[in-house]
Amino acid sequence: MTFLRNAAVAAAAAITAVAGPAVPAGADPAHHTAEAHAVSVDGQSKNSTAEVAPAAQKPQIQPASSSADRDAAAKCWSGRTDGGRKFFKTCNGTSYRVYVDCTDGRYLFPETFSGQWEFRLTCPEGTHADWGGNW
Q1: Does the pTM exceed 0.90?
Q2: What gap in Å lies between CA 112 and CA 84, rounded to an integer?
Q3: Hey, CA dihedral for 73, 75, 81, 86, is it positive or negative?
Q4: How far apart (Å, rounded) are the C-alpha atoms in residues 126 and 65?
């Protein structure tokens, strides 16, 4: 009997190591998704979501600062956090994308923007916004 119990424990440990811990029935797995909300100067609104980017996918990116930043795609200003999950900034340019650095990694938003937009980038629950920028 002890042999069967030990075998069952070993099998469960092996399955957990390969597949990850089981999610209880009816529970949603944890979602680590950041959200972007943008409003243009002419009143358009866009929403986007992003998953954390693998380290190999992180492009060389210009962070937003409190003074105007300049790069090939856009210039951004008024970069700030709320001390919690949100990062805010305003950018103006052609064909640029935005990102937010959260305490659990960088989130690259797939949406491309042109013109002037005000951004509110929100990190997943349980994390904090460190900063953000564009590329």
Answers
A1: no
A2: 26
A3: negative
A4: 25
